[in-house]
Amino acid sequence: MGVPTGRVDTIVLIHGLWMTSRSWEKWVDRYAARGFRVLTPAWPGMDREVEQLRADPSPIADQRISNIVDHYAAIIRDLPRPPIIMGHSFGGLITQLLVDRGLGAAGVAIHPAQIKGVVKLPLATLRSSYSILHNPANRHRAVPFTREEFRYSFGNTISQEESDAAWERYAVPGAGHVLFEAAFANLNPDAATKVDTKREDRAPLLLTAGGEDHVVPPSVVSSNANLYRGSNAITSYREFPGRSHFVGGEPGWEEEADFALEWAVEAANEYSPTVVSEAPRRR
């Protein structure tokens, strides 16, 4: 298991859509037990309890991708040395945007929402996003998941009872504007999700996928990873069979958490950006 070194001793964890920093609670304990300083800053204005955000979701409705990225960039630049940046889902998209800005010692995009240029849109992804995308007016709203929608999108590998408990503890309304920005990025020349995938001087980047993930299926993540093939900076891809989008707490989450940390520590401390590992091509 990775341990801190003189160069890398801090991890910044970035939550995704429909979640808050609470979703990292198990990962925080696991990484802190290894001696790392673990930071879980919330999206701007969302540094509140789940219950508060459900009662008043206005801070969620205000979110924009560029503001979120600026928020985390400021936090990371204030740290004494570059951290490992890890993000889940839309946090994985944000991680890629931060790495593209030259930030971080290594980046890990965990089941990430896609950057501009990914054209795959599987039916499972459409179904997971339908509660927001079916109504253009939701661009300006925070839209909650029902228990049933959460079960399909996050809890599809666990029991209904376990999924309902996870929904109760972690789920908050999703930021409509953020989802619309990502969903229609390929139609916008100035999309906030645009990344310079040919950049050579960025930190190493790992993208992971879950074999049973309905929100971001492996075909989407591998397509995202392969956009970086034009760069000699380190880019790696790893798929975890049988895993859903609920990396914060589904059985076996420890394996992905450990792999992410071990990869990031090794990449940050030992690798030079000269090798690109290609993700498998998917039809």
Account of the protein in words:
Keywords: Hydrolase. There is one protein chain. The protein has helices at residues 25-32, 50-55, 58-61, 65-77, 90-100, 123-133, 147-153, 160-170, 176-183, 218-226, 253-269; strands at residues 10-14, 37-39, 84-88, 106-110, 142-143, 174-175, 205-210, 235-240. It has a single domain (10-269), classed as 3-Layer(aba) Sandwich (Rossmann fold). Helix 4 (65-77) packs across helix 5 (90-100) and helix 6 packs antiparallel against helix 7. Strand 7, helix 10 (218-226) and strand 8 form a beta-alpha-beta unit. The strands form two sheets. It has a six-stranded parallel beta sheet, with helices on both faces. It is of the alpha/beta class and 283 residues long.
Helix and strand topology:
Elements (H helix, E strand, L loop, with lengths): L9 E5 L10 H8 L4 E3 L10 H6 L2 H4 L3 H13 L6 E5 L1 H11 L5 E5 L12 H11 L8 E2 L3 H7 L6 H11 L3 E2 H8 L21 E6 L7 H9 L8 E6 L12 H17 L14
Parallel strand pairs: 1-2, 1-3, 3-4, 4-7, 7-8
Antiparallel strand pairs: 5-6
Helix pairs in contact: 4-5, 6-7
The number of domains is 1
What is the CATH topology assignment? Answer: Rossmann fold
Level-2 CATH architecture? 3-Layer(aba) Sandwich
Rg (CA only):
17 Å
List its traits:
single chain, 283 residues, alpha/beta, Rossmann fold, disordered C terminus, AB_hydrolase_fold, hydrolase activity, hydrolase
Tell me briefly what this model is.
By secondary structure, the chain is of the alpha/beta class. Helices cover 37% and strands 12% of the residues.
